[in-house]
Recover the amino acids of this structure.
């Protein structure tokens, strides 16, 4: 593994773990009122595109990082839809 790949893996680790506290908090509090649905939809779309890009370019830091980050973002999005008050 070269130095650039190591930097990529560290970037993926930090970026990915940044979502974990929000997921845990949303599970614990069941409160997602202040989270932006549109922001998470845009973010999830971008992550899926980065994942696709990483797959086509055989970039393991992008594949690993965006796979996990996509899962965490999708979890937050699911919780947002599940716990948001229903409009009549």
């Amino acid at each position: 593994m070269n130095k650039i790949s190591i930097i990529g893996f560290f970037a993926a680790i930090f970026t990915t773990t940044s979502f974990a506290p929000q997921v845990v908090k949303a599970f614990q509090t069941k409160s997602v009122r202040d989270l932006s649905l549109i922001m998470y939809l845009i973010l999830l779309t971008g992550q899926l595109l980065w994942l696709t890009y990483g797959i086509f370019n055989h970039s393991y830091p992008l594949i690993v990082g965006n796979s996990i980050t996509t899962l965490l973002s999708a979890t937050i999005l699911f919780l947002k839809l599940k716990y948001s008050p229903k409009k009549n």
